[in-house]
Amino acid sequence: MTDTEHRGPGVAKAVVPAAGLGTRFLPATKATPKEMLPIVDKPAIQYVVEEAVDAGLDDVLMVTGRSKRSIEDHFDRAYELEEALRAKSDTQRLHSVRESSELAQVHYVRQGEPRGLGHAVLCASAHVGAEPFAVLLGDDLIGRREALLKRMIQVRETYGGSVVALMEVEPEQVSLYGCAAIESTGEDDVVAVTDLVEKPAVDQAPSRWAIIGRYVCDPAVFDVLRETPPGRGGEIQLTDALLELARRKPEDGGPVHGVLFRGQRYDTGNKADYLRTVVEFACERPDLAAEFLPWLREFVDRNTADTSGAGA
User: Fold this and answer.
1) Which residue numbers delimit the Nucleotidyl transferase domain (predicted)?
2) DSSP letter string over 265-300?
């Protein structure tokens, strides 16, 4: 074991903030949590839980808010529905209904008011305790073939501290993310984070490497969050707490490293990207692609022709 290797408890718990109001998807999210919007026939939040489980984390804490009861119902047993499917010998749908309730040990805590991602993470402190933990945002879906979270946990085990997922974005997109100043570690996909700026202006961004919705946090983040004043938008920003940890030594909860992610990520946080995600997932489904792809090609060709004709 090298001097830089972390000695301590491993990552065993995942925190999934799910208390947002989902205003960009109104009126659909007036009574339905945005996390429950379907990606074909499975709610987006189930893909997030499956990712955590695939990385070895079967203890999942949902940080919820008002009108989120359907999330709890989804990850619970539905005995009447199961019995109805069993009576019809519909084993395929019966399995799909049971699958979500058997994925993980899912726990819940309420975020009383929407005070930002940092506050949502702080709501998990009693459940997480003094252990490192992962944070997975429901707006970001990572391709099933990727092993991003597993890699981040490995980096935590090697370097200690906290780990963020970084993805290179176009210059005009940096103001949508927290962006990192980075230094090489000698590993192709691992960097040291030296600065973090939440949603910077294009000319003030430290780089084009943006934080996407995956984190592995040292438990020291909780004490920092308790002392972190509201930042941009009047919210407690997780980025601000991570910047403080990036300046610390390992014995004080630092440092912060980044995993440079170049794989497949799906952003479901706005309508256009949500629709693209649904289409991509449908095209990858063997039970749908044979019928859906020919229709999609014909639809695109027809609309392309109509557009060309309109401009003639």
Assistant:
1) 13-276
2) EEE-SSHHHHHHHHHHHHHT-HHHHHHHHHHHHHHH
